[in-house]
Amino acid sequence: MIPGLHHYLIVSALLFSLGLLGVVARRNLFVVYMGLELMLNAANLALVAFSRFHNNLNGQVMVFFIITVAAAEVAVGLALLVALYRKRQTADVEDLTTLKL
Amino acid sequence: MEHAAAAAAAAQHAVESGSKVQDLAWAILVLPLVMAFGTAVFTPRDRMLSAAMNIGGVVVAFLLSFTLFCVFGGQSVDATPFHWLPVAGLDARIGLHLDALSTLMLLVVTGVASLVMIYSTGYMHDDRSYSRFFSTLSLFVFSMLGIVLADNLLMLFVFWELVGVSSYLLIGFWYEKPSAGDASKKAFLTNRIGDFGFMLGILVVWSLAGTLDIAALKEKLVANPALLGPWAGLAGLLIFMGAMGKSAQFPLHVWLPDAMEGPTPVSALIHAATMVAAGVYMLCRVFFLYTAAPGWPAVLGVLDVVSAASIITCIGGFTALFAAVIAVQQDDIKRILAYSTLSQLGLMVMAVGLGAKTGDASASMYHLVTHAGFKAMLFLGAGSVIHACHHEQDIWKMGGLRTRMPRTFWTFLIGTAALAGLPPLSGFYSKDEILAVALEANPIFFGVGVLVTVLTTFYMSRLLLVAFLGKPRGEGADHAHESPSSMTVPLLVLAIPSVMVAWLPIGGFLAHHFQPGHAAHGGDILFGPFNHNPIAAFFGLGAAIFGFSLAYSLYGNGPAADPLSPRLGLLAQAMRHRFYIDDIYDGLVVPLHNLLSQVADTIDRWLIAGLAVRGLAGVVEIAGRALRLVQTGSIQTYAFLLTASVLLIVLLALK
Questions:
Q1: Which pairs with CB-CB distance under 8 Å and at least 24 residues apart come from B585-594?
Q2: Contact between B88 and B114 (Cβ < 8 Å)
């Protein structure tokens, strides 16, 4: 069986949903972060698949950008998380509700 | 204050540039204001300096007025105007106009004010708020001079209100007394009713004639008498409402007797000589409105048979008679004089109305001028008596003051004779002019005039006989002694014009203003009335003599109580209670007003403040509270909501 476009898209959708579930449901900020990465990579997979099946390189260029930005984001985001943890001694999202009025 | 300061600056500028003599009028107007301000700010504790500054200011204003009077006589000139608010279509300016009316009024106002202020140094000697008194008095003089000099209706109205305010401040001068506070509020509010009509009248005139300038308005109306069309009558009556308030005409007369709560010099200056005369003066300034073609809007068709002038005549005549009848049974010396003032003002207003037929209101102005002199004198005399009797105002507790206070007695006698209209005193000549005009225009009002003269002489003789002759009936009168010369000298000075008027051609001077063709009476003023209009003169004189003999027969033997009261029975009761007008107002107008206020309050509280303002705010707040529940602060909820929303949008878009 030769995998077609829809196979890739289904995998991508599954990955995205798992990531979203991680973001919305998990309480540990690090896991939430992983969920985010998962969602980004789901998008990457979909883009690469589209690029391959439509013979258009634009999608792959886009993916390079996403990987770069995601790397930067991880660097900044993890630094923030560590700083936050040092200050509050917690990485639980339930405890981080100071934005509320 | 700002525009007054600006006006002062303009005046300064005008005086410095020295271009025209008539710009001196600015100095006359501004001097009292500067003094009032200076006293209030810089010398509130220095009694001597305050009195000197304010008296000096008004005396200098008087001298300047006299200069202007001599320079211009009856000529009509304008001082350099100050453009206050030039907007499209309306040039609101402070312009000063000098003519026969205003120069004469300048003399009256500044003259009487100077004497009253000098008198006050004696009368108010023991008062704590000495400086405040003089400062407010100067403020009043400034406002009054503004009315006198105004060359347009807007400025007239502004100063009209200023006069109302200063009158309020002076009636309530002894504000610790609740009655004084009430009286000042009553005066102010009653005046406001009249002023409201006045303002509407000014608006009507402006919308139809397109100008507020009195001279320009007159020119337009002379060129086209039907300019105001069907609104002529209404405009006239509305403007007359202002005069009804200030000159205390029925039914807005109730404030004047109560205004006697103020210090007596205030009563003399404001509530006898000047402010109450402002209404009559204003009617004379806009007299051309009443001689123009009459007309009424269709709604008021029933009024077609009468003109605004005839309504004015009726109100004036009624007030004159009504107040004179009340005065007959009053016991308070100041109240008798107050009702007498009401009655004389009624005569003046009546004369304006009657004069509209012949186009000559000089009789009214003439009486205004003479009345200002002798009524101020009478009030100051009454003040002297009250001062001497330790603030006793009931004439039945006085008596025998003739020998104890000779100067006061003689000046009071001259004032009474002038008011009664005995030749050769001033009142005779001016009242004779009114009677002559009435005889010519409408015999009914001639009858009213003669009857008022009888009553006037009667109640004034009663006052004189009871208070000054006979034996003292009270402790205060027994120990009374003549007031200091600071009080008696102004009295003597005020007596001069009352005696001198017979030799001055004031009547002719004023008639010339209204009818340029009219020649001033020659040298026969002294016996003039007997030659020109013998019927009026003899009737006036006869009425005075009749009134006096009637009073003498009742009060000549020094009775202890009023012998007239039991004879009149219920009528005397009614007269004592001012025909229950105040009670009717208390019983009818006040509850009606309270009801209206309550309705307005309910609407304001529940509809406007409740539904419109708090209702709107409430809806917004509730919505805000509801939306706040969404703000949990948890990022995960936000992420979930975001995703859900995106999904929803995508679903909707795909459909």
A1: B585/B254
A2: no
Q: Does B638 touch chain A (CB under 8 A)?
A: no
Residues of A in contact with B632 (CB under 8 A): 97, 100
Cβ–Cβ under 8 Å, residues B290 and B282? no
DSSP for B38-95 reads HHHHH-SS-HHHHHHHHHHHHHHHHHHHHHHHHHHTT--EEPPPEEEEEETTEEEEE-
Question: Are A93 and B636 in contact (CB < 8 Å)?
Answer: yes
Give A99's contacts in chain B (Cβ within 8 Å).
631, 633
Q: Is the pTM of this model over 0.90?
A: no
User: Does B251 sit behind a cis peptide bond, omega within 30 degrees of 0 on the bond before it?
Assistant: yes
Query: How is chain B split among helix, strand and coil, in percent rounded to 5?
Result: 75, 5, 20
The interface predicted TM-score (ipTM) is 0.82
What's the rounded Cα separation, in Å, for the pair B247 and B240?
10
**Euclidean distance between CA atoms B185 and B510, whole angstroms:** 36
What are the pLDDT digits (tens) for B238-286? 999 999 999 888 888 888 888 888 888 998 888 888 888 899 999 998 8
For residue B520, the Cα-to-chain-centroid distance in whole angstroms is 29
Omega within 30 of 0 (cis) for the link into B230: no
Residues paired with residue B78 on neighbouring β-strands, in sequence order: B97
Q: In angstroms, rounded to a whole number, what is the distance separating the alpha carbons of residues A38 and B644?
A: 19
Chain A positions touching B631 (Cβ under 8 A) are 99-101
Amino acid at B79: A
Q: Per the CB < 8 Å rule, is B631 touching A101?
A: yes
What H or E segment, with its residue span, contains residue B97? strand B97-98
CATH architecture assignment, domain A5-89? Orthogonal Bundle (1.10)
Give the gyration radius of chain B's Cα atoms.
29
Token duo for residue B162: 């200023």
- Whole-angstrom Cα distance, residue B167 to residue B539? 37
Q: What is the pLDDT of residues B111-121, one digit of tens each?
A: 999 999 999 98
Q: Fill in the amino acid letter for A75.
A: A
In Å, how far from its chain's centre is CA B143?
A: 11
Domain boundaries in chain A? 5-89
CA B641 → CA A20, B638, B646, distances in Å?
12, 5, 8
